[in-house]
Every structure is written in structure tokens, then in C-alpha cells.
Amino acid sequence: MDLTVVAYVVYLVISIGLTIWVARTLSRNGRIFLADVLHGNEKLAEAVNHLLVVGFYLVNLGFVALYLSGDETIADARGVFEALSTKLGVVLLVLGAMHLGNVYVLNKIRRRGVMEREQQPPVPPQAWTAPAAGA
Fold it and tell me: Which of 27, 5, 24, 9 is nearest to 64 (CA)?
């Protein structure tokens, strides 16, 4: 069997496995964060979480598929490891960048919600004062 095909198969198995593991981890641990961002709306948090996971799968698996092909022919075991390390390293960096991007956007949304809550008085006003005459 051609070593290039072996490298492709190993790359696909590891990349797809890593993508699934990261997506499940982010989904499981992101539910609480999303519920906070969305002011305790659990149904909306679950829906947004599911949409984020689907988008995560599409982008990352699409990248894995596009990055599969290589120009060089792999002749020995060393070449297999070198090709895999390069390809898997890039996939891991893309997964990390996607994660950081998601956390950044959600944190911005969360901060905006916290700022809106802080602008409202904790107790409604009891009365009001008329403006001074001549002011």
C-alpha cells in the first residue's frame, strides 16, 4: 500500500476524532456559559449551543477535507510522520482559533448584557422631583 494513502487515512481518523472530541467538550461545557449569556433562557441556550456545534463541525471538517491533499509523495515512515505532524498541527491551530473566536464573541455578548443590567436601578423609583423653575 502506498504510504501517502496511509498518511491520508491516519490524518483523517485523527482529525475527525479531534474535531468530534473538541465539539462535544465545547458543547457540554458551553451550555452553562450560554445560559448566562442569554439571561437564563435554557431553551434558547440549548438551540444556540446546537447551532454552534453544527457550524463548528462544518467549518472544521471542511477545512480537514480541503487540507487533505498534499503535493509531495511520501516515500518512508519518516515522511509519514512529518506530513502528519504538519497537517495535524495546522488542524489543531484552526480548532484552537475557532474556539477562541467563539469564546470572544460570546464574552462580548455577555458583557453587553451585564452592562445593560447594571444600567437599570435595582429598585424602581418611589417618586420624582419636578425640575426647578428657571433652570
Answer: 9
Q: How far apart are CA 60 and CA 90, in angstroms?
A: 11
| Distances in whole angstroms, Cα of residue 98 to Cα of each of 12, 54, 57, 59, 76 | 19, 13, 11, 9, 33
| Closest to 11 in 3D by CA, of 77, 72, 75, 69 | 69
Q: How many CB atoms lie within 10 A of CB 95?
A: 22
pTM for the model: 0.70
pLDDT tens-digit series, residues 86-112: 888 988 898 888 888 878 887 887 787
- Residue (of 56, 50, 47, 51) closest to 21 by Cα position: 56
